[in-house]
Write a structure and sequence with these properties.
heterodimer, A: alpha+beta, Naphthalene 1,2-dioxygenase Alpha Subunit, Chain A, domain 1, 9-stranded antiparallel sheet, 31% helix, 24% strand, B: alpha+beta, Nuclear Transport Factor 2, Chain: A, 6-stranded mixed sheet, 3 helices, 7 strands
């Protein structure tokens, strides 16, 4: 049995290396995190019509997400109730039914078993079709159009699960006019633990200047992030450049003030985005207030616990699907604002794929780090050690306006610590009631020195 | 990709020239001479695209949204950026060097839609070795247009690759395909 209490020490900001290696920890993660948390499925914009569906995974469970005749979205495990073969082989499309390729059992888009070939002749009409529908994902809901699902019916609502992070996320997901994802996603294999990209995206601004030394120099000469290039000096104190937040549910981000623009490869493209932001900012301020209008104009790297990451600026949206302790499937979409001119949407998608897609110049730079920080722990001595996420320790605080716990330094590991604090809590808790019971105390215990 | 089954095949001489072009290109890219490739073999008006199709049922024509995602949608300046990255000396993913080796085959050449242009199909198998333990392989078909410049030399004007491996096990496509 895994002793989870020894894996993470939030107070000192350290984590056991075993969390990137051990099979029994991974198995516990699947049971206690992936079978209990809200997980990203798709976006409203990708399945707008009745019968539109996509297939994806929640943890390692294959699911179909499909829009119903009444407009609601439901999700089902993609496995026939008969002998278990999958009932949908396509990634997306529009359908009236899902038919198992093995014997032809047919299910409606509501998951009900509708047709069984030769039912009268081979089952003598004794098969109870009513109890042989597809297994349904207990909860499906959307936040600003982003659809998430949860296998655990006792889980809090999606809004509660996002908690304080929702206030931040609205600054880019919930802007007037709304957002959409440009699909289909690219899909690629990385030989890393699923947490390594999540913790990178959740707020690791420290790596930008070093890992991406070549790409920041070549691609982003017009960006404020260029100032980080080479990790030699900071143009301003880190607290002037931005902030970090973490939240009860482990979600967090690093935010670089004013950094959203200048990340595209031509001056014209950057000017188009700048014009859009200038026109939108007053509307964002009106709906969400001046503070979030400032965040709207910032560059972000963030992770929604457990495995959903995003960037504001490059506008990438990612899911890291676990495939065992040492491998993931990375799914990558571009997100844009719905009301943007079509040309600007295409520009953003093109730039996103050039940087964070399958042939992405920055994506591949990150991948080597994520893989090596996973694979080195094959060594028994190596994985005895602990990992250090102490940057900014003791400088986190509560804020009158900003929810959660914040730190006035963009280069920081506050959100790493918050991610692993909640990770540990989820692994230790037997059920959601236990997690609810400790919720009111989380800030105090996180800030405790 | 609509293959030009009825299109006019190029002459034997042009066929040889096209083959020499593709082989030289392969050698330059695989031996880290992408700058030379860019300067001597790529038309400044290049359109270089690699895309991946979402898997949908044959009969399904009603589904919503884009059906493809573009891994590359590059013009000359974009390709130049990719070449420039390694030249900075700070592209850690290329240091120690990656080793590429490709086989180009199934070459077919047809007269293009405009004078001095050729439509060229070829298949590629690439193996990428890197970082002691990594070996990845990629197979794909190219749909190219080569254009004869004022200097009489062929240059790559367009390359479109409908990349067939939907889930890319070789991690990324950070090389010239």
């Amino acid at each position: 049995m895994v002793d989870v209490s020894k894996l993470i020490n939030t107070k000192d900001g350290i984590q056991s290396r075993r969390i990137f290696h051990d099979q029994d920890i991974y198995d516990l993660e699947m049971e206690r995190i992936f079978a209990r948390c809200w997980l990203f499925l798709t976006h409203e914009s990708l399945i707008p019509n009745a019968g539109d569906f996509i297939t994806t995974k929640m943890g390692q469970d294959n699911v179909i997400v499909v829009r119903q005749q009444n407009g609601k979205v439901r999700a089902f495990v993609n496995s026939c109730s008969h002998r278990g073969a999958r009932v949908c082989a396509a990634e997306a499309g529009n359908t009236r039914s899902f038919v198992c390729s093995y014997h032809g059992w047919a299910y409606g888009i509501d998951g009900s078993l509708q047709g069984v070939p030769l039912e009268k002749e081979v089952y003598n009409n004794q098969l109870d079709k009513f109890t042989h529908g597809l297994v349904e994902v207990a909860l499906v809901d959307s936040f600003c159009g982003f659809i998430y699902g949860c296998f655990d019916s006792s889980a809090p609502s999606l809004r509660e699960f996002l908690g304080e992070a929702a206030w931040y996320l609205e600054a880019w997901m919930g802007v007037p006019g709304g957002t959409e994802l440009i699909g289909p996603p690219s899909r690629s294999m990385l030989y890393c633990n699923w947490k390594t990209p999540g913790e990178n995206f959740i707020g690791d601004m420290y790596h930008v200047g070093w890992t991406h030394a070549s790409s920041t120099q070549v691609l982003f000469p017009q960006s404020p992030l260029m100032a980080l290039q080479g990790n030699a000096s900071l143009p301003a104190p880190a607290e002037v450049m931005g902030l970090h937040f973490t939240s009860r549910g482990g979600h967090g981000a690093a935010i670089t003030y004013g950094g959203r623009g200048g990340l595209y490869t031509t001056a014209r493209e950057n000017e188009m985005l700048a014009a859009w932001l200038a026109a939108q900012t007053p509307k964002v301020a009106e709906r969400l207030g001046e503070v979030r209008a400032k965040l709207y104009n910032s560059a972000w790297d963030g992770t929604i616990f457990p495995n959903n990451s995003f960037l504001v600026g490059p506008n990438t949206f990612k899911v890291w699907l676990p495939r065992g302790p040492g491998a993931i499937e990375a799914l990558t979409w571009t997100w844009v604002e719905k009301d943007m001119p079509e040309e600007l949407k295409r520009i953003i998608a093109r730039n996103m794929n050039q940087t964070f897609g399958t042939a992405g110049m920055l994506e591949s730079e990150d991948a080597d780090n994520m893989e090596s920080m996973t694979q080195v722990n094959d060594g028994v001595v190596t994985r005895r050690g602990m990992l250090n996420a102490q940057m900014g320790l003791g400088r986190e605080r509560e804020d009158a306006v900003m929810p959660g716990i914040v730190s006035d330094a963009m280069i920081n590991e506050l959100s790493h610590r918050g991610f692993y604090r909640y990770y540990q809590e989820m692994l230790m808790a037997d059920n959601w009631d236990e997690l609810r019971a400790s919720a009111s105390n989380w800030k105090k215990s996180h800030l405790e020195r | 990709m609509t293959k030009q089954n009825d299109a006019r095949e190029v002459t034997r001489e042009v066929r040889d020239e096209i083959e020499r072009f593709l082989f030289r290109e392969a050698r330059l890219i695989d031996s880290e001479q992408e700058r030379e490739w860019l300067q001597t073999m790529v038309d400044p008006e290049i359109k270089y695209q690699v895309f991946s199709r979402q898997l949908r049922y044959r009969k399904d024509t009603r589904g919503s949204g884009d059906k493809e995602v573009y891994f590359f949608d590059d013009n000359y300046a974009d390709l130049a950026h990719r070449v420039e990255l390694r030249e900075t000396g700070m592209q850690w993913v290329a240091d120690p060097p990656n080793r590429l080796r490709r086989i180009v085959g199934n070459i077919e050449g047809f007269e293009g839609e405009r004078a001095g242009e050729y439509r060229v199909y070829s298949n590629c198998m690439v193996t990428r070795n890197r970082m002691v333990y990594e070996q990845m392989s990629y197979a794909y078909g190219r749909d190219d247009i080569l254009r004869r410049g004022a200097d009489g030399k062929l240059r790559l004007l367009q390359r479109v690759i409908d990349f067939e491996e939907r889930f890319v096990r070789g991690k990324n496509l950070l090389f010239i395909l």
